[in-house]
Each structure stands twice: as structure tokens, then as C-alpha cells.
């Protein structure tokens, strides 16, 4: 008999992004999360758009609900996210000066991280800080923070979070670093440059989150990804997989075939990382195909539903669940 490879699950904590609003109405959805996850993260809820309807308001209902749910069921909650160009409420456009931007960012992080101090063990402090430009490499992405403060906003966010919760794992989270395209190579390089600069100046930072929204029709550049993780490890940073799913809009229609390719792709991705460093966590961006962001951007031409996640729409495990 051939020895079965040791399952990674059980060793590395697994989690999923959760739509908190469904926990009270979708019983099988809630049960799937409780059954499979050691970690949860709000798919929204802690984003500026959800938390900050106006400058003087913080609406904590969703994250408060999710952290209660997590703790009642023996799970931990990750925080996503404190500084991102996306999901910003309109009023933030009125942040005019560098001084005001600094005040707003510090006030936000102090309030939010402070509320959950000691209870959210890991934060995506900065999300998607890298932008690529065809022909001229990758740079720090534009956002209200970058426009007002320059790349200094990244350091400011990290230092503020560390001051408020010194026990939290502080993460820089990014995407599109795993494929054999020039764009991904540029992004890996820009991200490593950013990390090295922060480490050189002793900015508090503990880990890199690799989102892992994998294009199903593209190979993983295993060597490039492993080298990236090697460089991260040399900087004494941990890695975690934060938003894994496989974008299947260009994959075969037949469900069985599609599910095999999805699982193989994720398997290659996780192996390229784990061969070098054991991730401190693996999270998928959703758990069931019933609720996924993928069709918002990557609908299939044949009208068939996407299947990017470990459980099918009926919450039954697919091949992907076996490789996590
Ligand atoms: C997405 C959510 O899944 C959507 O429901 C929301 O409308 C937009 O944001 N990378 C990230 C996540 O870091 O925050 C994004 O989540 C998906 C891509």
C-alpha cells in the first residue's frame, strides 16, 4: 500500500471569509463554517466602507457579531483590513492635507484595533499596496493615503497598529504574485523591495499575506513563488494564505473536470509555498460556491455557476477541500 501524504489540514489552521449577515438565516452555511474552520475573517464589515458611513461614526455591529460567533464556536477571527485603496466611503475624498490624512488613519486604526485588542490575533494592516504598470514595473498603488502621505502611510499604519495591540500579527496582504507573467514578476519584486525597506528600518511587521485568487487557466510559477517565499523567510517574516480561491471562468464546463483543475491549481500553489515555509494559516475567500465574489468579476460565458471554493453550492466538499 502506498503511504498517504500527511494532510496539511489539522496542522495549519484553516479558515474562510464569512458573510456575517447570513449567519442567522442560513443554517447549513453556518454549520459548514463551524464544521471546517478554525479561523474566520469578515468578507466585509471591517472595511472602511462598512465601518465608517461618516467621519464621526464607527459601526461595529457586523464585526462584533462575527467575533462572538467565532469565540462561541472555538474559532479565532482575523481582521481585514485597515488601509486599502478599495471600499472607501465617499467622504474620505474630502481628506485634504497630509496632516489630516495622518490624523484620520491613526484615529481609525487606534479605534478599530483598540476595540478588539487582544481578541483579533492577526490583522491585514495594509491591503493591496502594490500596483503594476505595463512597461514600467510595479510601484506603490495610489489611494487617498498614498496620495496624501506617500508610501509613508504603510509605516504609519503598521506602527500605529503595533502601538495599540503589540500582541497582534501584523500582515501586509497582496495578490497576483504566483503566475508566470511579467506582471507577477514585477509585483513580487516590488513587494519584496517594500518589505525589505520596512524591515531595514525596524518597522513592526510580522507576515506577508498571499491572497491567492488563482487564475484557473494559468500555471503557477512554482519556482518564482518558492523564491519569493524564500526571500520572505530570510527577512524573518511568516507567510499566510489569506484569500484562496480559483477563478474558473475559463475552465471546462464539465463540473468534474473543472473541480479537478481547481484542486490541482491550488495544490501546486500551496506546495510551492509549503516546500519553503509552512504558512501560519490558510484561508479561502468564502467556503461554499453559493456565496463567492468571483462572478462579480469573472462570470462564465456559458452561464454556468462558478465553482471556486472548497464546498459546492450545497455545502458538500469538493476536490479542493482535500488539498487544503
Ligand atoms: C471583496 C468581497 O468579496 C466583495 O464582497 C466586496 O464587494 C468587494 O471586496 N481582495 C480583497 C478582498 O482583499 O477584500 C476582496 O473582497 C476580494 C479581493
Automatic annotation (TrEMBL):
It catalyses: Endohydrolysis of (1->4)-beta-D-xylosidic linkages in xylans. It is an enzyme of class 3 (hydrolase). Its EC number is 3.2.1.8. Gene3D superfamilies: Glycosidases. One of its GO terms (biological process) is xylan catabolic process. GO terms for molecular function: endo-1,4-beta-xylanase activity. InterPro entries: GH, GH10, GH10_dom. It holds the Pfam family Glyco_hydro_10. SUPFAM superfamilies: (Trans)glycosidases. Residues 2-324 form the GH10 domain. Belongs to the glycosyl hydrolase 10 (cellulase F) family. PANTHER family: BETA-XYLANASE, GLYCOSYL HYDROLASE. This is Beta-xylanase. The lineage of its organism: Bacteria, Pseudomonadati, Pseudomonadota, Alphaproteobacteria, Hyphomicrobiales. The gene is cex.
Amino acid at each position: 500500500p502506498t503511504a498517504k501524504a500527511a494532510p496539511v489540514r489539522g496542522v495549519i489552521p484553516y479558515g474562510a471569509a464569512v458573510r456575517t449577515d447570513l449567519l442567522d438565516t442560513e443554517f447549513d452555511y453556518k454549520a459548514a463554517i463551524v464544521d471546517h474552520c478554525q479561523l474566520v475573517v469578515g468578507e466585509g464589515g471591517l472595511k472602511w466602507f462598512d465601518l465608517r458611513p461618516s467621519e464621526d461614526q464607527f459601526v461595529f455591529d457586523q464585526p462584533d457579531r462575527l467575533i462572538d460567533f467565532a469565540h462561541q464556536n472555538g474559532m479565532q477571527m482575523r481582521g481585514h483590513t485597515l488601509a486599502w485603496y478599495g471600499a472607501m466611503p465617499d467622504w474620505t475624498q474630502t481628506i485634504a492635507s497630509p496632516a489630516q490624512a495622518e490624523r484620520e488613519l491613526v484615529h481609525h486604526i487606534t479605534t478599530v484595533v483598540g476595540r478588539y485588542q487582544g481578541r483579533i490575533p492577526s490583522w491585514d494592516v495594509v491591503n493591496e499596496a502594490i500596483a503594476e504598470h505595463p512597461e514600467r514595473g510595479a510601484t506603490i498603488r495610489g489611494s487617498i493615503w498614498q496620495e496624501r502621505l506617500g508610501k509613508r502611510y504603510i509605516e504609519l499604519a503598521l506602527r500605529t497598529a503595533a502601538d495599540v495591540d503589540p500582541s497582534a500579527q501584523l500582515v501586509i496582504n497582496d495578490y497576483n504574485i504566483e503566475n508566470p507573467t511579467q506582471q507577477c514578476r514585477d509585483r513580487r519584486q516590488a513587494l519584496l523591495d517594500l518589505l525589505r525597506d520596512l524591515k531595514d528600518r525596524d518597522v513592526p511587521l510580522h507576515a506577508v499575506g498571499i491572497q491567492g485568487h488563482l487564475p484557473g487557466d494559468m500555471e503557477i510559477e512554482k519556482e518564482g513563488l518558492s523564491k519569493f517565499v524564500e526571500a520572505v523567510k530570510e527577512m524573518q517574516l511568516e507567510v499566510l494564505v489569506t484569500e484562496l480561491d480559483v477563478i474558473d471562468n475559463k475552465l471546462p464546463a464539465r463540473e468534474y473536470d473543472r473541480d479537478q483543475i481547481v484542486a490541482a491549481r491550488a495544490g501546486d500553489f500551496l506546495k510551492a509555498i509549503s516546500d519553503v515555509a509552512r504558512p501560519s494559516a490558510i484561508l479561502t475567500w468564502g467556503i461554499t460556491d453559493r456565496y463567492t465574489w468571483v462572478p462579480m468579476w469573472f462570470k462564465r460565458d456559458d452561464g454556468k455557476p462558478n465553482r471556486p471554493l472548497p464546498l459546492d453550492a450545497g455545502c458538500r466538499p469538493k476536490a479542493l477541500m482535500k488539498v487544503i
